[in-house]
Amino acid sequence: MWNVERFVDDARACLCAPDPLQAVEALVREAVSDPAAVRAAVAERAETASELGFDVFCRTPILTVFHATLEPGFRNAPHDHGTWAVVGVYDGTERNVFYRRAGRTIVADRDVDADAPAVMVMPPGVIHAICNPLPTASCAIHVYGNDHFDASRSMWHPESLIEEPYRMEQFLEWSRESCAQR
Q1: Mean predicted confidence (pLDDT) in 57-81
Q2: Could you give the CA distance from residue 30 to residue 77 in angstroms, rounded to a whole number?
Q3: 5 contact partners, CB below 8 Å, separation of at least 6
Q4: What is the CATH number of the domain that holds 21?
Q5: Mean of the pLDDT values across residues 18-46?
Q6: Would you say residue 158 has pLDDT above 70?
Q7: pLDDT for the residue 88
């Protein structure tokens, strides 16, 4: 059975691998191969989720691991992570809109739907936004090589697509506003 504490310990161990991103990808791929086990382990922790559906398993300067439940219609603004990221979708679909830089702004480059079970690997520098296009929740395990919530990184205004330093409160406000418009 999948276990949150063991998964976090294994993710920490991946950081010592010759290629931490590849090691984390394999770990996440193994986890989402058994959606029922992940679902059961997460259900035991249901009271620890935030208002936006995040349950943080681990948060350190070099590793963040959390569970995200994206409600129908969820969307956020374009952002980068300031590091690599691995996302394992085990229920539903997470639509990623990837962007590329175009002068002082960004332009949408491609959409990729991660249909469960799926693993998305994002090397440093990737700019994307996510949404849940389904009428049901989407659930995923997220792993980052930094303190995802307090890292030096960027976000882009959801309408003007102008880059600015990442500020958690502003980013969350944009997400709430975007979800309310759906």
Answers
A1: 94
A2: 29
A3: none
A4: 2.60.120.10
A5: 95
A6: yes
A7: 98
The residue behind tokens 């996302």 is: 87
Separation of alpha carbons 145 and 131, rounded Å:
22
Instruction: Identify which has the larger pLDDT, 53 or 121.
Output: 121
Contacts of 134 (CB under 8 A, 6+ apart): 72, 92, 93
Question: How many domains does the chain divide into?
Answer: 1
Total-model pTM: 0.93
Domain carrying residue 134: 4-180
3-state SS track over the chain: CCCHHHHHHHHHHHCCCCCHHHHHHHHHHHHHCCHHHHHHHHHCCHHHCCCCCEEEEEECCCCEEEEEEECCCCECCCECCCCCEEEEEEECEEEEEEEEEECCEEEEEEEEEEECCEEEEECCCCEEEEECCCCCCEEEEEEECCCCCCCCCEEECCCCCEEEECCHHHHHHHHHHHHHCC
In whole angstroms, give the CA distance from residue 159 to residue 36.
Answer: 38
The pLDDT tens digits of the residues spanning 45-58 come to 877 666 556 899 99
Across the beta sheet with 85-91, the strand order is: 54-59, 64-70, 138-144, 85-91, 118-122
Cα distances from 86 to residues 22, 28, 67, in angstroms, run: 9, 7, 12
